[in-house]
# Entry
Amino acid sequence: MSVEPAAAGDVDRLLAPRGTRTGRRRSAGLVLAIGFLALLVLVAVAATWIAPYVPSAQDLDDRLSGPTPEHLLGTDYLGRDVLSRLLHGARPALIGAVVAVVVSCALGVPWGLLAGYYGGWADSALMRLADTVLVFPSLVFAIAITGSIGAGIVTSMAAFGLAISPSIARLVRAGVIGELHKDYVQITRMYGCSAGSRLVRHILPNSLEPLAVQVTIYAGIAVLAQAGLDFLGLGVQIPEPSWGADLSQAFTYILVDPAATLAPGITIMLTVLAIYRVGDAIRDRL
Amino acid sequence: MLRIIGRRLVQLVPTALLATIVTFALLQLSPGGPATTIAGPDASPESIAQIESELGLDEPVALQYWNWLTNALTGDLGSSFIDRAPVTETLARAAPVTLEIAGLALAIATVVGVPLGVVSAVRRRSVLDESIRNASGLGIAVPEFWLAMIAIYLFALQLGWLPSGGFEPLSDGLGANLESVLMPAAVLATSGAAILTRQARSGMIRALDSKYVLAARAAGVRPSDIYLKLAVRNSLIPVVTVMGLVAGTLIGGSVLVERVFVLPGMGSLLIDSALAKDYPVTQGVMVVLIGLILVITLLVDVSYGLLDPRTRRS
# Structure
């Protein structure tokens, strides 16, 4: 799932340099995005200490309370504190995104390197396989694998990472092919570098730039996908707190307590927006 | 033109075949296999073995695949492990639901997204442009299944304009049918519309900045003619490029949206069968979805030729 970077954006950026109103608003947005993500990491690490309540603590006398001074985002149908569960949900969300990105790169980078470097029939075979995996919508692929192996945050997000790895492979391959005939690569040949060291130490670092942008976008897509898989019951299992699974429970009581449904959804959206904003900033830098 | 279509069709065959192998292989990953799940947690090894032989799961995997493939080519996708119902019949009931919602969503996404992108490009760097771009940014970041919940709360539970879920087949009248699919389709269209807006905007800007538009301006062609007759047509090519991606997003997203709206489509079928390890059904759904995406890819390729005569030559 890659969106072609819009060339038109480049023109706008040139026309909106630092110091202008648009330019200033842009960098303010970036600072907000980075701040939000930093906060999220902090919350994920320290949820146990920050959260006002234990996320699984039930209070059956105080259910679906709606926002109150004791429970800022209210309580759910079992009287659990919605805010505490939201804070604890940051952990699986970030772990899931990291798992998806690590798996997709661990598979996709060597995949693209080998295809681009060796060319010929190896390239054709590897890319035909990539085309085949890309035929599957990534969420459908992840659902099929998770259904088969068993639900869980690591399985579901590893499956999602596998589904998007061919896109990474294509990107790396294109980068490698672009570098292959440059002078410095010829020089490593003259110095008698082994193929492995030429690939990993010289060609790879130079073909990573476009990857940085794409990986950030995939991290955002992964957060969305994980929320969806958790919602379907294929990721984090209830009663463990997660944004997606909590949404599926809160939705049942949306008439009584709409706040419990709003909070996780908005958090997911802000997280994804912040990640995309960082991705845009990386693209601007390159 | 026909030769191009023919060649593309031939190229699709190995991809389709490989995709069925990948699907088959994925389902073999299951620890214990479906028989363990079907027999239940307390089943003896003997009863598991009996179920396996009844379902043909004790045969070598390659032979199982071959049997499945040869049957599939005759239109027989096997029968469910759970209720023994023929998969083809189950799919024939579920597919129209998903196709209607996804098709309607694609139409909404195009009708909303492309004009927004074009307007955004024509009024570049205006407040309108900025708002449209922010909206499309939100559209890509919003979880659609959550948007579905909010839509149900607002339009079904509070305002009572539309039903909160369920599917009315076309045979029950067009009005009831449209009422039941309108909200799911509109929600499902969100990310597609956002992607198309971005793509149409960048395509339109590229076209407006090109030399032929400059030449047309210099020759005194009316601005409305430049936008509508010259630039839009050329800006459509990058839009068509992402249609395949949008279709994939729609099909993936329909799984979640169908769940929230309790629609008996292929998405619901996929989740239920995957969780129950009802492999023939999962496999059937995957085959239909893959077929759908391959057809869309083919249509995208063909429409390049229609939109841009230069690509017909190669």
